[in-house]
Design goal:
The complex is a heterodimer of chains A (409) and B (490). Chain A is of the alpha+beta class. Chain A folds into two domains: 239 residues, P-loop containing nucleotide triphosphate hydrolases (Rossmann fold); 125 residues, Beta Barrel (OB fold (Dihydrolipoamide Acetyltransferase, E2P)). In chain A, 22% of the residues lie in helices and 29% in strands. With 490 residues, chain B is α+β, with helices and mostly antiparallel strands. Chain B folds into four domains: 104 residues, Phosphorylase Kinase, domain 1 (2-Layer Sandwich); 124 residues, Transferase(Phosphotransferase) domain 1 (Transferase(Phosphotransferase), domain 1, Orthogonal Bundle); 48 residues, no CATH class; 118 residues, no CATH class. Helix content of chain B is 40%, strand content 14%. Chain B contains 14 helices and 13 strands. Classes of the chains: A alpha+beta (409), B alpha+beta (490). Chains A and B meet through helix 2 of A and helix 4 of B.
């Protein structure tokens, strides 16, 4: 069990890591877990294989209908597991009732009871489980310390600010001391400003508690900023799991490449000749490994991806440079983005599977923005290009050297 | 983005002040109604002949809840009626305002807190919990996972001597083709926690007696739910007399107020027995039967009471006629000779108190007490006259408008919704003469109950102790009518 002080050390990765106490190891394992709704052919969640470490903050992210909420609800016990199993620590919970799983769903918007004190609001549910009074008081006090609510324990919710009230609601889940917290789009109820604030608070709180947490969102920015690791799902299939940095620097396929990062990665399919991708007048050299990984089915085509910040502006007609017609310039003060178009001859491939529009986003120096309608020439920085199979969409280039690339979340 | 209203074809909705935050809507628009605890700004708004509930939230949630309520309504689940979603709201200075979900206010419905404030009799609490457990069973049968079952998220209507519960907050819910056991268990678990919390809160505010044990009551929902769920869905194995057993099962379901739509009967492997499993059960067995016979749209227990009275009428008149009347014919006679005269006897100004069917139920109860006191049967017109004069005026107005005490008690926590100021002007309890639910009853010729002059039975009704403002208001009525001398109409 955690105690509020003296149990954290500064982790090597820059995060506070909880020191493991005598508490059970609350790892979570999805072991080839599938959910197949009756009467449907495609599983809503398809053989999910995922190991979540004790104390980890894992974010499930993906577009709507990708199976992220279903996965969370399978862990909560709300959805049946039709194939495979789910484990919490060394316990198989696949067929265990929700309330016996030692898991708490956390809502941001519990109703608070106006006539009860803050302490009672946080602790009353423990009385249902016949928890001893002294124990309840202790747990409430511990939680209040973590939540900075100690001095308000005997007050009524009316006396609290909006943020404090939200923390009382969190306290209700915390005092149960579950092995795992589950959060399903908890911020969807809030306006944009409060969402950013609360996002930071939840992440900080989770690090102080050190309780394993699974968090679901459709928002990749939320995922990048909050998660220790991110699992990206699409059509019920896990696409990739990794740290925010992994996902950004080495997306496993075209989908992850396009989903993670804002503005999105530039993705287009190009013809390959003599080990070089033909991008309009330019010839972009491909790595040895990339060429080795191409198959006959690829029909000498490759999908290239490069981030908006991975380009350098160069003089017109420089070697290996691509011309981009400037359509819109978006100036954000610290940054500026050019929304442009590759020349048609660069994208004349018939109906490519990935990225056929030729739209390109370039981050440029905000003090030197090109004019709308002009043509600007750029080169893709060495080692910051991602290559994917034109047939399967899978990554075929080695991990990009993570030099200048920075998440722009 | 310009203002966009999606939903009901009601141009009048455009007239509402959407460019003002809901918490600042002008008082003349607002109906002071009892509200539950809410995490959003919620206001009841006068609109045309009725009252609307408006809730501020974000557009995605509003649309989602709107479609879910529509879908539930289509499945005839007991829930509030979604009217519209309003998006693209802007203040005159161009500031964006939250989206709004508009629902119809359920006439004569009460949040649980209002029921506690108006004289908690023994058993009221358990009846509320029973009503909620039936609601949860019905929603689960329809494939609706609630996610936040609580007394606050339901509304209650009087239903004969019980209550009927209606879903008001579908925000946390989901619709599925069929619920998993985990979803049902989770709903029961949150229900217990929420009910205990709500009752503890009532005890803190001294609205609930200290002797009531919230933890006992909290677990009641689960046990009631399980009883009902088992009765409705369990598979039984029959070895002999199959037709009789099937009929018994149907009768048992009917007694619970459910209709058997489809049943699965399967012979066991060895061929010696048949397994029986209800496949489709529909709630509202009695209310649908009454609707078919009379066109009256009332709640389940009210329907049960009305059907019983109708049956009694049919039997009593059988002897006079010499043969039992056809059911449809008897229903028509009962409607015109018994039901309508009774509810018509309620003066217009007292109609905001209870629904017509509930009035009828109470008159039947009153008649029983009068008969006890008199030592013999009391005819319906006498019972009605006595009820309208002595009982109904003492009731709180439950149709739509309630007084300050309840408004104060049930106003949401201001800070929960980041709004300030929860004091509302108390409306004249009779001002909102909303005729909703009375619409099907023919208008009386005069406002006062009919005076019947032939003398055969004279009854003095027991005087009630509490004399409320409403009762004093009704004294003018009494003065005009004098002592009612009523004869049996037959």
């Amino acid at each position: 069990m955690w105690t509020p002080q003296g149990t954290l050390h500064y982790g090597s990765s820059g995060t506070y890591l909880p020191v493991k106490g005598p508490r059970n190891m609350a790892t979570v394992t999805f072991d080839n877990a599938s959910r197949i709704y009756p009467g449907t052919e495609r599983p809503a969640v398809d053989s999910l294989q995922l190991d979540i470490a004790d104390g980890e903050f894992l974010v499930l992210v993906g577009p709507s209908g990708c199976g992220k909420s279903t996965s969370l609800r399978m862990l909560a016990g709300l959805e049946d597991v039709d194939k495979g199993s789910i484990w919490v620590g060394d316990r198989d919970v696949t067929h265990v009732q929700p309330k016996d799983r030692d898991i708490a769903m956390v809502f941001q918007s519990y109703a608070l009871y106006p006539h009860m004190t803050v302490a009672d609001n946080m602790g009353f549910a423990l009385k249902i489980a016949k928890t001893d009074k002294a124990e309840i008081r202790k747990r409430v006090e511990d939680a209040a310390k973590i939540l900075d609510l100690t001095e308000y324990l005997d007050r009524k919710p009316k006396a609290l600010s909006g943020g404090q009230r939200q923390r009382v609601a969190m306290g209700r889940a915390i005092v149960r001391q579950p092995q795992v917290f589950l959060m399903d789009e908890p911020l969807s109820n809030l306006d944009a400003k409060l969402r950013v604030q609360t996002r930071t608070q939840i992440a900080a709180l989770q690090r102080r508690l050190g309780t394993t947490t699974v968090y679901v969102t459709h928002d990749q920015v939320e995922a990048l900023t909050m998660g220790d690791r991110i699992a990206v799902l699409k059509d019920g299939v896990l696409q990739q799991v990794g740290t925010p940095r992994d996902m950004y620097d080495a997306p496993a396929n075209v989908f992850v490449a396009g989903f993670i990062g804002s503005p999105a990665m530039n993705i287009s399919t190009f013809k390959v000749e003599d080990g070089k991708a033909i991008v309009g007048p330019a010839r972009v050299p491909l790595k040895r490994e990339t060429l080795d990984n191409m198959s006959a089915d690829d029909n000498s085509e490759v999908v290239l991806g490069w981030r908006p910040e991975s380009m350098d502006r160069v003089a017109p007609n420089s070697e290996g440079a691509l011309p981009i017609e400037v359509v819109v310039v978006e100036e954000l003060g610290s940054d500026a983005f050019v929304y442009g178009q590759l020349p048609t001859l660069a994208t004349t491939l018939a109906d490519p599977k990935f990225g056929g529009t030729g739209e390109v986003i370039v981050r440029v120096d905000p003090r030197d923005v090109p004019e709308k309608g002009s043509t600007m020439w750029v080169t893709i920085r060495e080692g910051e290009q991602h290559a994917f199979s034109a047939t399967t969409g899978k990554r075929i280039s080695p991990s990009a050297a993570s030099t200048a690339a920075t998440p722009t979340a | 983005m310009p203002l966009l209203i999606t939903g009901a074809a009601d141009a009048g909705l455009m007239e509402l002040p959407w460019d003002v935050p809901l918490s600042a809507w002008p008082e003349e628009r607002i109906a002071a109604l009892p509200r539950g605890l809410s995490r959003h700004v919620v206001r009841f708004v006068r609109h045309g002949d009725g009252v609307l509930a408006v809730k501020e939230t974000n557009p995605e949630i509003a649309h989602r809840e709107f479609h879910m309520l529509r879908e539930l309504e289509r499945m005839e689940a007991p829930c509030v009626k979604a009217v519209a979603v309003v998006t693209g709201r802007q203040s005159p200075s161009g500031e964006e305002l939250p989206a709004a979900l508009v629902t119809e206010h359920l006439a004569y419905s009460l949040p649980y807190r209002a029921i506690f404030s108006s004289a908690l009799r023994t058993g009221t609490l358990t009846r509320l919990i029973d009503a909620l457990s039936i609601l949860v069973v019905r929603l689960h049968l329809a494939g609706f996972y609630w996610g936040d079952v609580s007394l606050s998220n339901a509304l209650f209507r009087r239903d004969a001597s019980a209550f009927s519960a209606y879903l008001v907050d579908a925000e946390t819910g989901d619709l599925h083709p069929k619920l998993t056991d985990g979803q049902r268990e989770y709903d029961l678990d949150t229900a217990t926690t929420n009910i205990v919390g709500e009752l503890l809160d009532l005890q803190e505010s001294e609205d609930l007696d200290e002797t009531v044990d919230p933890f006992d009551i909290g677990t009641r929902l689960e046990s009631r739910y399980r009883e009902l769920w088992t009765a409705l869905t369990s598979t039984e194995t029959i070895t002999s007399n199959v037709p009789f057993q099937v009929a018994e099962r149907v009768r048992a379901l009917n007694a619970l107020g459910f209709d058997l739509g489809e049943i699965d009967m399967q012979q066991t492997e060895d061929g010696t027995a048949v397994t029986l499993r209800p496949k489709v059960v529909d709630a509202g067995f009695h209310s649908r039967r009454l609707m078919r016979l009379t066109g009256l749209d009332v709640q389940e227990n009210q329907a049960r009471r009305l059907l019983n009275d109708m049956e009694e009428y049919r039997v009593v008149h059988e002897s006079a006629r010499g043969h039992k009347a056809d059911e449809t014919f008897a229903a028509h006679e009962w409607l015109t000779h018994v039901f309508e005269p009774t509810v018509r006897a309620v003066p217009r100004k007292l109609r905001g108190k209870l629904e017509p069917a509930q009035v009828f139920h109470e008159v039947l109860d009153h008649r029983w007490y009068l008969a006890q006191a008199a030592g013999k049967d009391v005819p319906m017109p006498v019972a009605t006259g006595s009820y309208v004069k002595n009982v109904l005026p003492t009731k709180a107005d439950e149709q739509a408008v309630l007084g300050l005490s309840i408004t104060e008690m049930t106003a949401e926590l201001p800070a929960l919704t980041a709004e300030f100021g929860t004091s509302y002007a108390v409306s004249d309890p009779y001002a909102n003469d909303n005729t909703h639910a009375w619409g099907g009853v023919p208008e009386p010729e005069v406002e006062e109950p009919p005076t019947v002059t032939r003398v055969s039975t004279r009854v003095t009704a027991p005087k009630r102790q509490a004399r409320t403002a409403a009762e004093r208001a009704a004294e003018s009525l009494e003065d005009e009518a004098g002592t009612l001398d009523i004869a049996d109409g037959e």
